[in-house]
Amino acid sequence: EMALQHFPRIIGLRDGELAFDLPAAQVTPERLQALYAQHLHELTGPAREPLDLPAAPVLPAVMHCR
After folding, report:
1. Sign of CA dihedral 36, 38, 44, 46
2. What is the CA radius of gyration of the chain?
3. For 64, how many CA atoms within 13 A lie in the half-sphere containing its CB?
4. What's the pLDDT score for residue 20?
5. DSSP label at 10?
6. In this structure, is residue 60 part of a structural domain?
7. Model's pTM, two decimal places?
8. Bridge partner residues of 36 (DSSP)
9. What three-state secondary structure class fits 14?
Protein backbone atom coordinates (compact mmCIF):
# COMPACT_ATOMS: atom_id res chain seq x y z
CA GLU A 1 0.00 0.00 0.00
CA MET A 2 2.84 2.40 0.77
CA ALA A 3 4.37 1.93 -2.67
CA LEU A 4 0.99 2.57 -4.32
CA GLN A 5 0.74 5.90 -2.50
CA HIS A 6 4.28 7.12 -3.15
CA PHE A 7 5.43 5.83 -6.54
CA PRO A 8 4.03 6.41 -10.02
CA ARG A 9 4.85 2.86 -11.24
CA ILE A 10 4.82 -0.49 -9.49
CA ILE A 11 6.97 -3.42 -10.55
CA GLY A 12 5.87 -6.86 -9.38
CA LEU A 13 8.43 -9.66 -9.24
CA ARG A 14 7.52 -13.32 -8.78
CA ASP A 15 10.19 -16.00 -8.39
CA GLY A 16 12.82 -13.64 -9.80
CA GLU A 17 10.76 -12.87 -12.92
CA LEU A 18 8.86 -9.74 -13.92
CA ALA A 19 5.16 -10.28 -13.21
CA PHE A 20 4.03 -6.74 -14.06
CA ASP A 21 5.26 -3.18 -14.56
CA LEU A 22 2.27 -0.87 -14.34
CA PRO A 23 1.17 2.61 -13.34
CA ALA A 24 0.21 2.54 -9.65
CA ALA A 25 -3.43 3.27 -10.54
CA GLN A 26 -3.64 -0.03 -12.45
CA VAL A 27 -2.32 -2.20 -9.61
CA THR A 28 -5.45 -3.67 -8.05
CA PRO A 29 -5.84 -5.64 -4.82
CA GLU A 30 -6.68 -8.66 -7.00
CA ARG A 31 -3.41 -8.31 -8.90
CA LEU A 32 -1.46 -8.09 -5.64
CA GLN A 33 -3.36 -11.10 -4.27
CA ALA A 34 -2.35 -13.12 -7.34
CA LEU A 35 1.26 -11.96 -7.03
CA TYR A 36 1.51 -12.94 -3.36
CA ALA A 37 -0.84 -15.96 -3.52
CA GLN A 38 1.67 -18.47 -2.15
CA HIS A 39 3.17 -15.96 0.28
CA LEU A 40 0.01 -14.20 1.46
CA HIS A 41 0.52 -15.48 5.02
CA GLU A 42 3.65 -13.31 5.18
CA LEU A 43 1.52 -10.22 4.57
CA THR A 44 -1.57 -11.08 6.61
CA GLY A 45 -0.22 -13.43 9.26
CA PRO A 46 -0.46 -12.77 12.96
CA ALA A 47 1.62 -9.98 14.39
CA ARG A 48 4.81 -11.04 16.02
CA GLU A 49 4.82 -11.32 19.77
CA PRO A 50 6.63 -8.42 21.44
CA LEU A 51 10.05 -9.31 22.74
CA ASP A 52 10.18 -9.62 26.50
CA LEU A 53 13.38 -7.66 27.03
CA PRO A 54 14.42 -6.20 30.38
CA ALA A 55 14.08 -2.44 30.61
CA ALA A 56 17.26 -0.49 30.00
CA PRO A 57 18.73 0.91 33.20
CA VAL A 58 18.23 4.62 33.80
CA LEU A 59 21.63 6.27 33.84
CA PRO A 60 22.31 9.57 35.61
CA ALA A 61 22.70 12.59 33.38
CA VAL A 62 26.19 14.06 33.36
CA MET A 63 26.27 17.87 33.40
CA HIS A 64 29.43 19.90 33.37
CA CYS A 65 29.48 23.32 35.04
CA ARG A 66 31.52 26.12 33.56
Report:
1. negative
2. 22
3. 1
4. 95
5. E
6. no
7. 0.53
8. none
9. strand
Residue 57 placed within a domain? no
Q: In which domain, by residue range, is 29 found?
A: 2-44
31/25 Cα distance (integer angstroms): 12
Q: Provide the number of structural domains found in the chain.
A: 1
Distance, CA of 26 to CA of 34 (rounded, Å): 14
- Tell me the one-letter amino acid at 58: V
Single-letter amino acid, residue 12: G
List, for residues 1-54, the tens digit of each pLDDT value: 788 899 999 999 988 899 999 999 999 999 998 888 877 666 666 666 767 777
Q: Is the predicted pLDDT of residue 60 greater than 80, yes or no?
A: yes
In this structure, is residue 16 part of a structural domain?
Answer: yes
- Among residues 64, 4, 62, 61, which one has the least CA distance to residue 32? 4
In a domain, 26, yes or no: yes
